[in-house]
Amino acid sequence: MFVSLSRKNIKRLLAVTLLITSLLGVTTDAAMALPASVKVSLFAAHPEITVVNVDGAFEIGPNGPSSKGHTEISLSKGSLYLKSGKGKAARRVGGRLVIRPLSAAPLLLQPNGLAARHYRGSIVVTASGGKLKLVNEVDTKSYITSVVGSESAPEFPLEALKAQAVLASSVLARHRPGLKLNDSTEVQAYLGSDYERPLAKQAVGSVFGQILTTASGTTPAVFYHSTCAGGTSDEREIFSGKVLNDSARQPVSSCRTATRVKCSYCQTSPFFKPHVVQFSAAELRKKVGYVPIAVEVKDPQGRPLSITVAKENFGTSSSSSSSSSSSSSSKTSISGYDLWLKLGQGLGWGAVPGMRYSFESKDDPSGQIVTFTSTGAGHGAGLCQWGAAGMARAGKSYREILHYYFPVANLNSK
Ligand SMILES: [Zn+2]
User: In which domain, by residue range, is 280 found?
Assistant: First the structure.
């Protein structure tokens, strides 16, 4: 895993490695093998694709042409149509196509209305529910390199990128073979080969094959987020919306961040400072479906675990003569995480970027106004990416970074 080292450096490295090994419990047992290639659903956050333009040197199977140029794939009445070259008519080609590159150069994909991206490997295009589905089959190393670039800021240092590479591989190792990944941050961002930055390549090259495991050698769920702005949370509390008692919080054979680490390394993040935004209750009712009333329980990091909300109940009037939909609201309880997701989905992810959020309501002549204040970005569980960058700048290695945010995890390498 370490190449191009002088003997002196190897000695020095071994000393450091031994020290870190005792900290991290590194084993040299074979890690769960990563698959040779992965299948990733592309443009998952944009499910409305009906046309995609392909550029590059490729062949289209099963019955399509070889092409060194531009091809447009469109959809009409459940069938795919191919159009190559100006003035040529679109040709109906069935419900499924495989685009294979004819060289090592990535293919350029440009779906309707979206920015173009380059991808290595092959692309399977299918007609599904009136939309185009694009699945990229790509070799695992290229996938992880792109994820590391897609999930980091260009200025992140090498050791932070190595930590990110180990996490990207750990997420993949937990994914069952044959299951398709998607390219959204719901799994991990994968924006194609444009994001294989040189430093990301170097990072993946030096830690490829390493993953986090539990004490018993299983692959745990690992989480990461942009900016914790002061400290991380226990993912079991964040995702369940419940406070754990002390015995449940023991990190038994898992790589929990149950100790909820403090983090002041992420101060250079653009999300470190409080972000304040206002919405009318009417807009929240319409776009989110909930208006927050009061925080019921917070975790020690100040992230709300459960919240009392006014829930909008849209009437399902059976009267066909009624043109206006009736609605009423009722009080209920929702987890802080679920409300945060709904805020992101309804108002855009930049509205309340961090899960450490609070809110205040006041009556305005124009109606009720809710002010949200959040710090950080993301759910706050697991590794803090801007914190990892700060640690790397402070001279910490990727092993130290991983050990800091995943204190009871093991680092397994091939
Ligand atoms: Zn942090």
Answer: 275-315+328-375
